[in-house]
């Protein structure tokens, strides 16, 4: 009779190693995403606090079909093509912006509407200002951040 030295460890050890590797890769990826989101959030907050106020004409609005829920509302992730109007120290420019917009506020961002923005004149990064009665979205969206009260006093 042949000696079969098969044990459960021949299956279990590679499976556990694969699960550990997958867990490490997933955790590293999520950590990078979180760090990138934090950098974008801080950059947007800085633009809201110190950016140049301007008005932007919505050239097009494209709903991506993605939704986020939280803070008592549902958000539509939308791509906006904006024409930022010239201010005293800069010229007009176009920009594409992906942002979360509360579902009741979608008609206010339709093509042909004008929205308030702040932008960095050097990098031309744009952040939408939100209305006072519109809920804030603090997830992946960078355009719905409120400036800190200290920045508003400056």
Automatic annotation (TrEMBL):
Keywords: Membrane, Transmembrane, Transmembrane helix
Extent of Basic and acidic residues compositional bias: 130-144
Transmembrane segment boundaries: 6-28
Region (Disordered): 130-154
Keyword Transmembrane helix tagged: yes
Protein name: DUF3592 domain-containing protein
